[in-house]
């Protein structure tokens, strides 16, 4: 692997680092996306990656495939059908009762076997808890490179995957290449890539592959399945409207102003990292490089300076409104609307104005 600054180096400057791709890797073709599904629920990041994968596949002139692992039945069938609606040319399926719940061992074996048999040149996974666990073990088993938490994926003139991600605490971007091994693997966090349109399509070509493993082969046992009661608590990453507060609010009491405005707008509320570190707000509300990436239609940030680690999590918002007392705050460099004001004084009348202006019907629409 080679590490480069944010702008991909021209192909010829990497020539020295690039030994001839070993003969057995030359057969690796096509772009694959691992479709993460649990009990019939496909994680949206998988479809976001289908959009990114389609762009890469078209540039390379190859096929885009989804890989679905799961137990035989409706849930897996549904995931396969949806994968076609998000642009797959074909779908690889490993369907076995052992794969009903995620466990690293059988999932790694299934994905590794399918890769070794059908040889993709690029394999993308969501940087979710499951995706990170699976990607790491599959990459180490395949002895190939994995670039985690990418923010951009491109294909170079020589067909290499240029995977860009923040480094040095987010102060730099680096582009990483897996030059001499295949597949080139990358994970991407939810909401980093835009969601492509879903187009109703019939089921296309499916390639099934056996798991070749039975329950007795697996060390970990699933004793029961307990859904995470908190998982539905914060819908921050997928909200259309997000209101967030930072250290400029000065106290947890003042942070309530953020929640009040969010309540009136039917929005989700979030925060910068220091508020989580101070214990004012729970970690699932943190926005930024080490928190959630958001892509709302409207993002209101109050008392947030706009450090790069925060910026990378909000740049995908359609409209960013920043409230800050310091007219030179970095957030004004990327906000679409900047309000130089004391948020503690501005938020209550702003909330009241929205309350008067928005009928419940409009609030519902904004939030939907
Ligand atoms: C490895 C690493 C990962 C990180 N990950 C993240 C991350 O995921 N998310 C994240 O947010 N940060 C992250 N950080 C921290 C980041 O570098 C910043 O320190 C942080 O974002 C700053 O938070 P803030 O804007 O709330 O506070 P500050 O930078 O202190 O800014 C407060 C702002 O409030 C303004 N202000 C003061 N009073 C008022 C007022 N009354 N009304 C309006 N404005 C006012 C000030 O002018 C200032 O601009 C990370 C840092 C590192 C090193």
Automatic annotation (TrEMBL):
Asked if the keyword Hydrolase belongs to this entry, the reply reads: no
Protein family per UniProt = Belongs to the ETF alpha-subunit/FixB family.
Please report the name of this protein according to its UniProt entry.
Electron transfer flavoprotein subunit alpha/FixB family protein
Q: Does the keyword S-adenosyl-L-methionine apply?
A: no
Entry binding sites for FAD:
272-273, 286-290, 303-310, 324
Q: Name one GO molecular function term.
A: flavin adenine dinucleotide binding
Sorted alphabetically, which Gene3D superfamilies does this protein's record hold?
Answer: HUPs, TPP-binding domain
Q: Which PANTHER family match?
A: ELECTRON TRANSFER FLAVOPROTEIN ALPHA (PTHR43153), ELECTRON TRANSFER FLAVOPROTEIN SUBUNIT ALPHA, MITOCHONDRIAL (PTHR43153:SF1)
Provide a GO biological process annotation.
fatty acid beta-oxidation using acyl-CoA dehydrogenase
Pfam families assigned to the protein according to its UniProt record, in alphabetical order: ETF, ETF_alpha
Write out the transmembrane intervals: none
Q: Where is the Electron transfer flavoprotein alpha/beta-subunit N-terminal domain?
A: 31-222
What is the free-text note on the cofactor? Binds 1 FAD per dimer.
For this UniProt record, give its keywords in alphabetical order, as a comma-separated list.
Electron transport, FAD, Flavoprotein, Transport
Cofactor(s) needed by this chain: FAD
């Amino acid at each position: 692997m080679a590490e480069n600054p944010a702008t991909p180096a021209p192909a010829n400057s990497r020539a020295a680092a690039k030994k001839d791709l070993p003969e057995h890797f030359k057969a690796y073709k096509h772009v694959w996306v691992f479709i993460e599904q649990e009990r019939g629920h496909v994680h949206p990041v998988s479809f976001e990656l289908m959009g990114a994968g389609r762009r890469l596949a078209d540039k390379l002139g190859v096929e885009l495939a989804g890989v679905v692992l799961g137990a035989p039945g409706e849930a897996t069938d549904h995931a396969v059908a949806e994968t076609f609606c998000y642009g797959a040319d074909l779908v690889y399926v490993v369907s076995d009762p052992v794969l009903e719940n995620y466990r690293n061992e059988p999932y790694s074996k299934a994905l590794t076997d399918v890769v070794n048999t059908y040889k993709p040149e690029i394999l993308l996974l969501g940087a979710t808890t499951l995706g990170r666990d699976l990607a790491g073990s599959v990459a180490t088993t395949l002895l190939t490179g994995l670039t985690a938490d990418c923010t951009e994926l491109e294909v170079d003139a020589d067909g290499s995957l240029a995977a860009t991600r923040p480094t040095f605490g987010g102060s730099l971007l680096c582009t990483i290449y897996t030059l001499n091994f295949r597949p080139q693997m990358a994970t991407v966090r939810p909401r980093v890539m835009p969601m492509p349109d879903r187009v109703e399509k019939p089921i296309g070509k499916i390639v099934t592959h056996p798991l070749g493993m039975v329950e007795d082969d697996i060390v970990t046992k699933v004793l029961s399945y307990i859904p995470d009661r908190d998982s539905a608590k914060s819908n921050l990453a997928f909200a259309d409207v997000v209101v967030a507060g930072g250290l400029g609010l000065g106290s947890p009491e003042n942070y309530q102003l953020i929640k009040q405005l969010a309540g009136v707008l039917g929005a989700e509320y979030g925060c910068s990292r220091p508020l989580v570190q101070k214990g004012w707000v729970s970690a699932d509300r943190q926005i930024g490089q080490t928190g959630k990436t958001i892509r709302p239609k409207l993002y209101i940030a109050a008392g947030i300076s706009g450090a790069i680690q925060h910026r990378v999590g909000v740049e995908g918002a359609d409209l960013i409104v920043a409230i800050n007392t310091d007219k030179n705050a970095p957030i004004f460099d990327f906000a679409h609307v900047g309000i130089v004001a004391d948020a503690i004084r501005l938020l209550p009348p702003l909330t009241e104005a929205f309350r008067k202006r928005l009928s419940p019907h409009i609030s519902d629409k904004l939030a939907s």
